Target: hydroxymethylpyrimidine kinase
Amino acid sequence: MNRYPSRPVVLCLSGHDPSGGAGLQADIEALLAQGCHAAPAITALTVQDTVDVRDFRILDRAWVLAQADAVIGDLPVAAVKLGMLGSLEMVDTVVEIMARLPGVPLVCDPVLRAGGGGALGKDEVGYAIRERLLPLCRIATPNLPEARILAELPDGSADACAEKLLAHCEHLLITGGHGDEREVHNRLYARDGSRHDFTCARLPGSYHGSGCTLASTLAGRLALGEELASAVNSALDYTWRTLRDAEQPGHGQYVPRRLPLDFRS
Model:
């Protein structure tokens, strides 16, 4: 039997999307494309398609802890990616899990709304993420609507949201693309006052799973040892390419093509 060097392991704490566009499938595909091994622990089950979310159920915290413990006890976790949490109990669960992984970078994608607009948790979940999880993160990756929820600034600019949220986290990537601008502006903020702006061409249509793709790719790049600003640039470039090559398998949003058509495991 051939034996190869182990790929970096990324523990993914995310929901399951049966349409395959977002959630854990997005995490797995994006991490495979980075040369990483995804260790997916399910936090929630959803009833959704490429149009919107119809319902969801948050798993019992004991089950999520058991999944994470099985991974942590067996595999060398190099990074953690958070997706849908959906409840205060799940926020507490992640805090407990991260206490078992000191020094491991955490990428938080604060999934508060589905691409079709449906809520994925009560309003207080956003507050709990801000107060309890952002301080544990290496970087959080909200889009502008999510940043406004987290910062409690309904009409706030990216700069205004960042100013408030950097009191809670070290680095913040606020992604654009939710207005009608011709170019998409993604802004990386740091608590030390530094800032990087990344601009890309706006693509037509809307996409299901773009945020999951970006955050999991970023976690993979950090697991590979890439420096933060470079990892953000790599993740944004890869995500843009998956959107450029996206397909429309259903009646709703486009799904990013995260793996080449001739991909072989």
The longest helix spans residues 228-244. Residues 1 and 149 are 51 Å apart (CA to CA). Residues 9-245 form a domain with the UDP-N-acetylmuramoyl-L-alanine:D-glutamate ligase fold (CATH 3.40.1190.20). Helices lie at 23-34, 61-74, 88-99, 123-133, 144-151, 158-165, 210-223, 228-244.
